Each structure stands twice: as structure tokens, then as C-alpha cells.
Amino acid sequence: MSEGSTKLRIAGCTDTGVRRQHNEDHIGYCQELGIAVLADGMGGHQSGEIAAHMAVESVVEKLKNIASSENAGAITSSQLLHFVSNTISHSNSMIFQAAEALEKHKGMGTTLVAAIIHGSRLYAGHVGDSRLYLYRDQQLSRLTRDHSLVQDLIDRGFYTEEEARTANVSHIVTRALGTKAEVEIDTVEHSLRTGDLLLLCSDGLSDMVADWRIEEILRERLEQEKLEQIAQRLVDQSNRNGGKDNISVILVQVAEIAEDEALVEN
Question: Per-residue confidence at 4, pLDDT binned at 50, 70, 90?
């Protein structure tokens, strides 16, 4: 879907972090088709790693199928957003069934954030506390809302965003793929401009590096370095701050949107 007028650059990296023994995050992307998917697994006996891998691989495959199909050009915005949601729902069913089938994987799950770019618009879906940000005009804004206990407390006025970063609150997600037969999926649709940068990340980054510092790194480095270097800088900053969890980052830069793509009807 990024073929033709819309030109994208995508880079990503994932790291075990300082304190964990193995990496239960997983990422996948396709620059040609404008697809990026990131998952943060949970569960013992490496079950989280399995759940994250299943989620990313199944969602990427299905998004590739719709993006490369002959009818991709005729799909409407509402249809595409619905397809993203259904694709994530299908992944949830796969993981849940796998967890039920094997006792050692019982209770495994994963967060997920998935994005696809069609013309000048972004379509995304997410479950859990992995995030999607937009960096535009040197300012970083979050496009997703965490499905977590901490976010619920913020929404109810118990903490501000800054207070929550240092509060002694258990890190509990309120939604995840694979833990129940059905899951509620939040979706995002947003217009894009040439020069926009999307950031998908696991909580290994967002918990360890404040939004203002992520914004600062992007502002300082985006014009000077390749996306791969910037993604690694974000991971390195998280590790310098303690690296308590696995860290995953995907950066999607909108290099060019031609005028005929810039006004896409809903």
C-alpha cells in the first residue's frame, strides 16, 4: 500500500535489556507495504516469547495479504480499520487456543500494536501497553492509550502522568492477546504528512525513557542519522536508565506523500 506515491522508510530493533535473561518481545515490518507490528509477550517457560512471535507473524502475514491484493486500492477506510481489528482478533484466538492446548503455556499472552499505511492515512490497532506515537513538527504525541492499571488510575485522577512514573504501582495490563477467548481491540485512524515519523514501542522503552526525552532524541538526531541508528539510540537510552525490561522500537518515516495521495476520502 505504500507502493507508488507514498514512500516510507522503516527500521526497528529489539533488545533483551539489562535485567532480563531472554527477550520476550518480537517485531515485524514490511517497508514496501507500509506495515509495522510489535508485541511484548508475558508468561513463564518462554511462553511470552511464543505468544509474541505468534501474534506478530500472524498479523504481519494477514496485513501483507490485504495490502498486496488486487482490490487493495478500492478498500475504504472503514473497511481497512475493521480488517486491522479482525486480524488482531484472529491472532488472539490462535494464542488462546494454543495456551489451552498445552498446560505449560497456559496463561501466556502478549501486548500488540500494529500499523498499516494506506495512501496518506495511518490505520492501527492495539491491545495492552505497547504504544504508538506520532512525531510531527518536532513534537511527540501519543496516539494510543495504555490498557493498564496505571493508566486507569491516571484516568480516574489518582495520579498525573509524571506522578505515575515514580509511583509504586504494580505493572499490570488490563487487556492482552491470548489470555481470554475474546479481547476488546482499540483502533486508531490518523492522517499523515510528508516528514511525519511514527514510533511503535514496548513498555521497555516508555517505562524507562520519558516522552520528553524521546522527543529530544528525535529532534536532535532525525536530520543527522539513519533510522536504524536512532532506533538503537532509544534502546541504549533505556538501558542506560536501568533497562529493567525487554526493549523494542520500530520507526516509520513518511518520506513522501504525493499530492494525489494527500486527500484520501474516508
Answer: very low
User: Does residue 39 contact residue 110 with C-beta atoms inside 8 Å?
Assistant: yes
CA distances from 235 to 152, 205, 250 (A): 27, 7, 11
Tell me how far apart the 2 most distant CA atoms of the chain are, in Å.
54
Contact of 126 with 113, CB cutoff 8 Å: yes
153-183: per-residue pLDDT in tens? 888 988 888 787 777 776 789 999 999 999 9
Using a pLDDT cut of 90, give the percent of the chain over it.
Answer: 75
3-class DSSP state for residue 77? Answer: helix
Cα dihedral 19, 21, 25, 26 in deg (nearest 10): 140
Would you list the domain boundaries of the chain? 7-145+176-262
Contact status, residue 195 vs residue 218, Cβ threshold 8 Å: no
CATH class, range 7-145+176-262: alpha beta
- Please name the residue ranges forming H helices in 76-207: 77-101, 149-155, 161-166, 203-206
- Answer yes or no: is pLDDT of 65 > 70: yes
3-state secondary structure of 127: strand
CA distance 257 to 18: 39
Q: Are strands 109-118 and 121-127 parallel, antiparallel or unpaired?
A: antiparallel
Q: What value, to the nearest 5°, has the Cα angle with vertex 216 and ends 24 and 228?
A: 50
